[in-house]
Amino acid sequence: MFFGLDTSCYTTSLAVIDDQGRLLGEERKLLEVPRGGRGLRQSEGVFQHLRNLPVLAEKLAEQLTDREIQAVAASVRPRPVAGSYMPVFTVGESFGRTLAAAAGVPFIPLSHQEAHLMAGIWSAGVDWRRFLAVHISGGTTDVLAVTMADTMSVQELGGSADLHVGQFIDRVGVSLGLPFPAGPALEALACQAGGDVLDVPVSVSALTASFSGPESHVQRAIERGTHSPAAVARGVERCVAESLRRLVNEARAVSGLQHTLFVGGVAANRYISSCLNEMFGENVAFADPRFAGDNAVGAALFAQRFYLF
To answer: Is the pTM of this model over 0.90?
Structure first.
């Protein structure tokens, strides 16, 4: 079996995959953010991961009997680029290296982004060799060209100039009194919107999006109270969907690639994914909502696919 770990900014995750790529078990726990907060300090995230990992490992062990570990993989940095670093990922790397050494098996480092891509490919059921990927979350708004061969190659094409998509959603959500991270609650709130939807401006130039202007527009609308919270939430979703449409159209024109995979926590939003499906039709896939957000399944899959290389 192949063991994966991911210790991101807001989730502690463990997962195990068999040699056929089947999920044998997983455990994950959201980190605790105080009500009204917009995030956690890295030191607090590290502490919570250290506290969560043994508990999750014990739960996962109960699901697995008589199986030998073949390789261990862990997310050790946010993205597969030089200088990419966050302290929270050192926790998963430390536990992963220790487990691999104790079991006498290879340890395979990867980035958090590569883990998202692996989970997306697997859960969406696609087997594309070259494709566009859009990684949208609280910490990332990246438009990528991905090549799957003996290794995974990721090239950044575009993204955000300021706020990430998930930050935009979270900041508005917190202002509306929703818990952080606000994605699921904002999506549920938006479902209550009727015909009165806040018109939120879209700011995209070529392969660069900006969400600071749209966020300021929304915050002013909240202060004025001119629209219901549900109307505000739905307006945010529409702005995000249109922004992503423009980014993908530009990326397709620049790269020549048509197949497009959406991963990350924001990709789990059913309204946004429905809009994008309608906009693009064919050649679009989304990570299953259960595996769109932070999870260790992608890390385990990375080990299963690439450990021989």
So the answer is: yes
